[in-house]
Write a structure and sequence with these properties.
about 600 residues; alpha/beta; 4 domains; 7-stranded mixed beta sheet; elongated; binds adenosine-5'-triphosphate; binds magnesium ion
Amino acid sequence: MTTPASPAPTEGDAKASNFLRQIIETDLAKGTYTSRHWAGSPGDAAHQAAGQPDPAKIRTRFPPEPNGYLHVGHAKSICLNFGLARDYGGVCHLRFDDTNPEKEDTEYVDSIIDAVKWLGYSWEGKGGSHLYQASDYFDFMYRAAESLIERGHAYVDEQSAEDMRANRGDFNTPGKNSPFRERTPAENLARFREMRDGKLPDGAAVLRAKIDMASPNINLRDPAIYRIRRATHHNTGDKWCIYPMYTYAHPIEDALEQITHSLCTLEFEDQRPFYDWLLERLNEAGLLASPPPRQYEFARLNLTYVITSKRKLAQLVNDKRVSGWDDPRMPTIVGLRRRGYTPEAIQLFAERIGVTKSDSWIDYSVLEGCLREDLEHKAHRAMAVLDPVKLVMTNWGEVFGSDDHLETCTQPALPHSAIAEGETPPPDRVFMIGKAVWIEREDFEEVPPKGYKRLFPGNVVRLKGGYVIECTGCAKDADGRVTEVHAKVIPGTKSGTPGADSVKAKAAITWVGVADGIPAEVRLYDRLFSDPHPDAGGKDFLSALNPDSLKVVQAWVEPSLAAARPDDKFQFERHGYFVADRVDHGVGGKAVFNRVTGLKDSWGK
Ligand code: ATP
Ligand code: MG
């Protein structure tokens, strides 16, 4: 009876199929949702029936609770929901799940909007701008609750919280019916209205769905659907003192918005029977359009060395373990962005990890690998010296006629391999070499360890893009610390000139000219936790914090970086990828770069 799935319409890259794509393709082939109408906004059955046939082939939604900043796990869900809608001629709604009056904050609402846009997605199109807030549906939710009561599907329970808990039973024991369970619809309706009208104190009663106290699925043992809570809601103010429970609100939100495929993480699997039960009851009453949305579960993202609980992330911020939600070590979208992640890298990551129905851990190196793949052909190359010591070419004046003489050097901004066929290479970088240059302290050894190929007395090395030099020795301070490295420049060996290869160098080292280098603060970020599963099994994640997750150094960088704007990414040759900090770079004329990632995977080591 199932029609063979047709291949997904794809743009560019062929997308790997997965169980959700198969479900959608089957629905499209069968025309499961072709009868739906869309009146241009969310609403009940009558509202939608008056609308056009839905221009969106499918509707998905991303429904964050605006109680924190989004993280890399949410990014997976965003890429999944918006990506499927885009690929199948549908639309994805951004819905703020703000039914809980206590927790919302406009700071979070704004940050969520920014994050979804930055990731490259849009909720516009197919008959409207689909940015919604669940609290706009409170009136309908209330009406639906009265309808359930009138038809004997819900009752007001006034047992104490303890009795209610005890009578719910457990996995091995069926629950016991509440003494309030057999109230008549008229009694329940009157009592529910008293709840609404503020006649009962907080916690004195709840409205419960009347299903089955003996169900093996505890979620079907007459779940609470409304509670009394005197709290001012950011949208509805003090209009309500009763609020719907999440498990009741969520299916209704989906149905009013005509969602076709409601994707959630696996922990909601046991809620699906209630989701279906509720929507069936409301369809029967003619309140909601048919066919109802369906819920499908996928495995949440678990990433090694990362925690994704909003509460724990908030604790890191509040305890000042990090500089804020956008600290470049945070797995929040604002943190990843400030760290130098690109939307393309995150989308590639979501595509690559795919969706499955069983929980597993994804290695952090997969995320970093996607970023390197993206930056490899985007990030212009540059030289930077992170632990500088001065190298002086003692024969410079002799060779060039003056100690102040400067020679111009050029190097490509992108190597040949990083430029796609037919693409014009960016202009070369230009910098100067003079008598003194900055080199990495570790690139000189007075007594070289075995196999060492860089600078030591007597060795011949190329200053990358500049001259070949022969090391002659060094100067040291009273403590024996090297203060200056000495060398002789070998004339006629400048890179790119005919004689460049006349002298063989043992190694090429990176450097920055003393004459034209610019000072920069470089923030060397490393993993925030040293444990791959920092909060697994109830572990204290704070004790797994990596004490060396941030090291700040004063570096010298080549002059091409004077043009860097916040968010610009570079590959500092030999060091890795770096980004001009989006907050601090350029402030007071100061250059600030963050290490995004090294050049190679170091997570397994
Ligand atoms: P809380 O920890 O406060 O319950 P949450 O992580 O569930 O928050 P929500 O704002 O409720 O956050 O999540 C919005 C959506 O993001 C939900 O559909 C949820 O399933 C999805 N989501 C959250 N965390 C992950 C994750 N780690 N992997 C995939 N999807 C996730
Ligand atoms: Mg949640």
